TrEMBL record:
Signal peptide stretch: none
A Pfam cross-reference name: Pyr_redox_2
Transmembrane parts of this sequence: none
Cellular component, GO annotation: cytoplasm
Organism, scientific name: Penicillium cataractarum
Protein name: FAD/NAD(P)-binding domain-containing protein
Record's keyword terms, sorted: FAD, Flavoprotein, Oxidoreductase
Amino acid sequence: MLYAGAETPTGPSAQMEKNVVILGGSYGGISTAHYLLKHVIPVLPDKNSYRVVLVSPSSQAMCRQACPRALLSDTMFPQEKLFVGISGLFNQYPKGCFRFIHGAATEFDPVNRNISIALKDGVSTTTRVDFYALVIATGASTPSPLLGLNQDEHALRQNWATFRAALPHAKSIIISGGGPSGVETAGELGEFLNGRAGWFNPIAPGPKVQIMLVTTGSRILPLLAASAVKKAEKMLADVGVTILKNTKITVVSPLGTGTDHVADKVTLTMESGETMNADLYIPATGTMPNTGFIPKDLLTADGRVKCSRGFRVDEAGSRVYAVGDVASSIKQPAVHVILKAIPILCANMKRDLLTDAGVSAAEDQLFVEDSHANQMVPIGRSKGVGTAMGYSLPSFLVWLVKGRDYWMWTTGSIWSGKHWS
Ligand SMILES: Cc1cc2nc3c(=O)[nH]c(=O)nc-3n(C[C@H](O)[C@H](O)[C@H](O)COP(=O)(O)OP(=O)(O)OC[C@H]3O[C@@H](n4cnc5c(N)ncnc54)[C@H](O)[C@@H]3O)c2cc1C
């Protein structure tokens, strides 16, 4: 369905206040808000009539990339850098031009141009916000709630606490997924629980905790060269992780283990009919877009928001956009890709807002994603593998750039908006 008839409500209140609503308080949403407040709203005629409204079920943003290590213990990272309050990040802008709504979007009505929101303020339960422009940046959730803000910061911390309490009693752990999240999680757990084999401390006669990484693929880390994969396998073996390839898990019993219950014993049934037991199970098998509140006809078959290379959701009416992991025009779910997308999105928003204000504006911009695989995968606290621009990276460089602190050296300027100064 094309929601072409949908237009901005008219009348005095709509004239006075134009809500630019952004859904999602992470890399896509927070960066868009800063960029608009710094570079777009100030140049619009009647700039005081616009207000950026950021909606997020979590009151804190977090360095999601750090989850494979952060889930082990609060001592792994300074917590005040790992989690950062969202509303305070916007105190730097003139009063009245920004509003934070602590809640989750539950319905997007493209015809009447409003968003229903389940509030987390402890008082009211729902509200509805009319939008003049809308940016959907609700990202994607992981099957394991240990690897991101699937709900909010309290739920994430609670899941970590439950998992950590079970860890000292675990003798066996299974992680499914041969991509970077699975490999990083296995590597971190392996080093934390078993230590790393070296010249003077081979892990013998066997690791303290049996850790197994299970993948449906014939190899782990499909984006990396075969030589890098071989190195990764050795690094994993050195921390006591074994790899089971070409294996599909078909049944998880009890149902919900690893997804709803992070510290339960599990029995996994493989496609072959064989079963495996483990004390803990972490599914790290990709992500699901957070789009349950969006009309189905605006979504692609894989559940993301259908948008153009200019990030417009053309079928949803005017001034509706999507960016980040939720957007169909972004192929590689990665922070560096989102940071390249934000200026393109905001240039097109600026053009649309100026045009609607009767001012002629610059040409449209189209996003062209780097086709090279760029990926760094730390394996424990001192090693890792990676590729950039088609070249394999030495372990030391992967440690220096990512493995040292899982990108926390970059998040300060992203959350504060300095990145866009
Ligand atoms: C374990 C792991 C490790 C990763 N490591 C790296 C890495 O090393 N390098 C890299 O570049 N990328 C990495 N990524 C990918 C990177 O984290 C994502 O590309 C990035 O987080 C996407 O940002 P986003 O803003 O699009 O969405 P997300 O980070 O998914 O955030 C979406 C936000 O929307 C909110 N939200 C959800 N539903 C609603 C709703 N209904 N209403 C309002 N708000 C909502 C969520 O609470 C969340 O705050 C990793 C991902 C994972 C899972």
